[in-house]
Amino acid sequence: MLNAGIAADSYTFSCILKCFAASGSVKNGEWLHGYLLKLDLAACSCSVVNSLLSFYAKVGRVESARKLFDELPQRDVVSWNSMISGYVANGLLHDAIRLFHEMTSSGTKPDIFTLSAVLHACASSGSLESGKSVHNYITGQGLESNLFVCNALMDMYAKCGSMEDASLVFSQMPVKDIISWNTIIAGYGMHGFGKEAIRAFEEMRRDGIKPDGVSFISVLYACSHSGLVNEGWRFFNIMQKECKIEPSLEHYACMVDLLSRSGKLQMAYEFIKGMPIKPDATIWGALLCGCRIHHDVKLAERVAEHVFELEPENARYYVLLANIYAEAEKWEEVKELRVKIGRRGLKKHPGCSWIEVKGKVHVFVAKDGSHPEVRKIEALLRKVREGMKKEGFSPKLRYALMNGDDLEKEMALCGHSEKLAMGFGILNLPPGKTVRVMKNLRVCRDCHEMAKFMSKTTGREIILRDSNFFHHFKDGSCSCRGFW
């Protein structure tokens, strides 16, 4: 085009940058940036500069995007949205939240896409305080009845551990669409409120809203995490016979998860074998998780063969099988798997937990000695452990996942990241205030028992979000009732 002497316009440059972003063509995008600089980037239209900003964010060059953003002589709402969305897409959630507040302070009025992006950042980070701050802004702007915004608000509250607020937003919505219903059903499910999820699903149908595939994924997930096997089967049949929806791999995965969590491992295995479509690693992985919950080593070995064949480079499944072996004290098998993980160059994600106190996020990793209050936290945890022993609780040493004596195992368990975060919350939050902890991996059984005990002795609720579920600990009990 250029060789033919035809001048490119703003639309041309924007389209090309979108193509480069979609294909991940970093070098081509950088070349075009250089070409635009020669043309005088400052003279280019806002749409071209915003496309360039969006390109850098989408290909993971966040620093380049921010440099360009800071150098902009003028920023419109699209510029701010591109940068905030770029931070969210690259996992820089707190940067996205900070930039949103910069935007409101600058006088630029956020639109519904800005609000959706920042609420997604709050949801993913579990930052309830930030989410409530955004909600206050929404109310001040008179947007609390906007359907798009309300759906994002509900999702944020559910993922930040406050189903009470999510339910309140839902109940006050003047209009609800299928996304609204799916969001509230999924929220109830991830918090272990299976019966509430079913009630919402049935109310949706009574209101004349036809459930879609996502609706059934949400309600099946809710049944799975509440041990409602018969109800799960009923909805699986309704989906096919009444709603004429063909099950996808996700629906089959929910059913396998439902059966596996409830201890019906052989039934889950036969269910997979009878599927009309080829099962993927997620489906076999759900059964492998069930084998860990119910300590079935032999079946786990058979299932792992299928998983490793489908996803040989996924470290998560090797670690899961290694943990199954460790809990069964099969240390030779653990050693062999760890060697295999090392030989393949696979990376295990370290356990990490975080808690927000007074607007600041405190992050902990296992055996973390870097936090300034770690000695106080360790002293508190020792005191809690001694109290548990006096009440007849014994440490779940099999979950230390190491070969050593009982003392070594107990010390290893004390250093788990979620315990450190819970201890920090108890030390620093006012008496009676809910402790909200987020974790990137599944919570271990020993930490689960300690959280139940701490909720009873401190007289406060502890809400712990792990990789796929919320645990509400109150008065010595957990909302999961063992289905997690």
Automatic annotation (TrEMBL):
Q: Which UniProt keywords apply?
A: Repeat
* PROSITE patterns in the record: PPR
Q: Which terms under GO biological process does the entry name?
A: RNA modification
Which GO molecular function terms does the record list?
A: RNA binding; zinc ion binding
SUPFAM superfamilies, per database record: TPR-like
Q: Hey, what's the signal peptide range on this chain?
A: none
Residue span(s) of domain DYW: 392-484
Look up the domain of life of the source.
Eukaryota
What the entry lists under InterPro entries is as follows: DYW_dom, E_motif, PPR_At4g14850-like_plant, PPR_rpt, TPR-like_helical_dom_sf
In the record for this protein, the PPR repeats are positioned at: 76-110, 146-176, 177-211
Family listed:
Belongs to the PPR family. PCMP-H subfamily.
Q: What is this protein called?
A: DYW domain-containing protein
Q: Which organism is it from?
A: Linum tenue
